């Protein structure tokens, strides 16, 4: 969410009515999340000036660990230097820390492609935004899910119930530090996740949703202490419930 919001912001800056705008003091502290969108807190160090040049050799974009040769345009400006400077700063301050984590395994290669392409400046801001929107579409639609055996048949579902909240086993990346709370596309995906956790015996699908509209599921190491909840469904492994009365 943070990276996508940042890319949308940089897309606007690259195509603003004032021309391509560069953030000269590009640091994480210069941004804040407001209603799920990244905002710049200080525009004092923003500029529309692009580096003047006479030849391509005048257009090297230098960073502490990398340098990029750019083209000198016919009007004597280094082509796209503001856009590329913003994009590489997004890569080194945000993408490298946030993109490699938390995504479903099937989407990680696509995020690695974005990371590598922006790190080498092979992508401009237009290509970067398209790549992020493709990943978001796959994530929201569930198209990233690989065909696998149907596992939900191995669970008993009880509508209108959930387990008593409390500390349970933890997983990564959980939305709760008290247990294992993950976003899912469907109960079938939740069953696959539960099967992949040795501790998991049940999971609860709630009506709480993430910014992408995906429901949250709480994964549990037991299924006892059920209480009524009209907005939840608890799924219990048949193997865990065998010999017990529901």
From TrEMBL:
Keywords assigned by UniProt, alphabetized: Kinase, Signal, Transferase
GO CC term, one of those recorded: extracellular region
Domain of life of the native organism: Eukaryota
Pfam families: PIP49_C
Gene Ontology MF, one: non-membrane spanning protein tyrosine kinase activity
FAM69 protein-kinase domain mapped to chain residues: 2-116
Presence of keyword Nuclease: no
Transmembrane region(s): none
Signal sequence interval, chain numbering: 1-19
GO BP annotations, alphabetical order: skeletal system development
InterPro entries: FAM69_kinase_dom, PKDCC
Protein name per UniProt: PKDCC kinase
């Amino acid at each position: 969410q943070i990276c996508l919001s940042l890319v949308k912001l940089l897309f606007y800056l690259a195509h603003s009515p004032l021309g391509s705008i560069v953030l000269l003091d590009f640091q994480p502290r210069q941004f804040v999340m407001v209603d799920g969108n990244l905002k710049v807190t200080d525009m004092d160090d923003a500029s529309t000036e692009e580096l003047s040049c006479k030849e391509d050799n005048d257009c090297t974009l230098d960073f502490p660990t990398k340098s990029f040769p750019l083209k000198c345009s016919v009007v004597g400006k280094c082509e796209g230097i503001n856009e590329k400077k913003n994009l590489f700063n997004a890569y080194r301050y945000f993408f490298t820390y946030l993109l490699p984590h938390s995504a479903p395994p099937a989407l990680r290669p696509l995020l690695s492609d974005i990371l590598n392409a922006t790190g080498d400046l092979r992508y401009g801001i237009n290509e970067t935004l398209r790549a992020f929107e493709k990943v978001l579409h796959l994530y929201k639609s569930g198209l990233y899910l690989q065909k696998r055996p149907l596992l939900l048949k191995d669970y008993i579902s009880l509508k209108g119930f959930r387990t008593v909240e409390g500390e349970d086993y933890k997983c990564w990346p959980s939305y709760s530090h008290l247990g294992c709370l993950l976003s899912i596309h469907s109960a079938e995906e939740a069953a696959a996740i539960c099967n992949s956790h040795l501790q998991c015996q049940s999971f609860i699908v709630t009506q709480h949703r993430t910014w992408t509209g995906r429901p949250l599921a709480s994964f549990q190491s037991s299924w006892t202490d059920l209480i009524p909840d009209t907005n939840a469904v608890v799924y219990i492994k048949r193997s865990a419930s065998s010999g017990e009365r529901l």
